[in-house]
Amino acid sequence: MSEVPSPRLRISDQDRESALAALGEHMSAGRIDIDEFGERSARVTAAKTRGELSEVFGDLPEPHPRYDTPGTAVSEPEKPAWADIPPMQRVMGALLPILFIATIAVIITTGVTWWFILVPIGISAVGEGIWGKGWENSHKKLGKRRRRELDG
Q1: In this structure, what DSSP letter does residue 112 have?
Q2: Is the entire prediction scored with pTM above 0.70?
Q3: Tens digit of pLDDT per residue, the chain (152 long)?
Q4: Angle between helix 118-131 and 87-110 (nearest 10)
Q5: How far apart are CA 74 and CA 72, in angstroms?
Q6: Can the peptide bond before residue 7 be classed as cis, meaning omega within 30 degrees of 0?
Q7: What distances in angstroms separate CA 58 from CA 8, 62, 64, 132, one per listed residue?
């Protein structure tokens, strides 16, 4: 058997899963029976270090468990697609549909004339004036960006 690098290094759940998969391959190849598989898999789940895990495979040929590489860098989480949209524009985009619904509710319940619906339409026009012509189409841009990310 080859020497295990850093036998005192603690193992992860992924290392244990790799060891259990390797034990399953040995059992399907007929090197160990179901009882021995049960005993060894119990030792694998109780193992805390690479040395303890390598003892389980001491009398078995390859495959052996694959270990995590130490010091693996954690990647920075991806920035959400909507992060490029200014905060005020996001707030307005969220509030505008609520304002339309509230306006319709006010018209129905109070009997205010239909021209009251011009309030959210006016706010929408102001938003277009502030953020430019494409502010109402920002959801389409987000959809295109998501499709490109999924395709590529």
Answers
A1: -
A2: no
A3: 456 667 888 888 888 988 999 998 998 899 999 899 899 999 999 999 988 988 999 899 988 888 765 544 556 677 776 677 777 777 777 788 888 888 888 888 887 777 777 877 777 777 766 666 555 555 566 667 777 777 76
A4: 170
A5: 6
A6: no
A7: 16, 10, 9, 69
